[in-house]
């Protein structure tokens, strides 16, 4: 008596379109996904680096006189990377909801710089002077927040 066994694996792969993305915007969607994937890999690499050096020449800016209710006052602060590895910038909150830091490109290659835009929306409360702060974290081991 001879017994013969046969194992067969059958599978199917179905690729669905992303929900909510119309066909005419699919290329744009795919480009954004590719950029996010590339950025995620670069961020993971930058988080492990030991020799980025964050430098900033201007740490304060006076917006001057602004009317109450003014929105969208902006100023760019430039952060330089004087190190040998990529510097990672992360907006880490602010002292008030009216102040927002915007970082277009979070990864700063060695020897380059990136702007960090501070956006301030003046409230309706009237005061002679305001002072707000935005916090930017980096992977520079010499510039870490103290606990």
From TrEMBL:
<dbReference type="InterPro" id="IPR013783">
    <property type="entry name" value="Ig-like_fold"/>
</dbReference>
<dbReference type="InterPro" id="IPR011467">
    <property type="entry name" value="DUF1573"/>
</dbReference>
<protein>
    <submittedName>
        <fullName>Protein containing DUF1573</fullName>
    </submittedName>
</protein>
<dbReference type="Pfam" id="PF07610">
    <property type="entry name" value="DUF1573"/>
</dbReference>
């Amino acid at each position: 008596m001879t017994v013969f066994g046969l194992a067969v694996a059958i599978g199917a792969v179905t690729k669905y379109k992303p929900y909510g993305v119309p066909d005419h915007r699919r290329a744009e969607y795919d480009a954004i996904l590719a950029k996010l994937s590339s950025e995620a890999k670069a961020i993971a690499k930058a988080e492990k680096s030991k020799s980025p050096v964050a430098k900033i020449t201007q740490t304060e800016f006076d917006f001057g006189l602004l009317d109450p209710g003014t929105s969208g006052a902006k100023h760019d602060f430039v952060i330089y990377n004087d190190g040998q590895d990529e510097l990672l910038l992360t907006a880490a909150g602010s002292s008030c909801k009216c102040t927002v830091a915007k970082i277009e490109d979070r990864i700063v290659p060695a020897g380059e710089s990136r702007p960090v835009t501070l956006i301030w929306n003046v409230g309706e409360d009237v005061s002679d002077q305001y002072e707000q702060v935005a916090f930017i974290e980096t992977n520079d081991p010499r510039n870490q927040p103290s606990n």
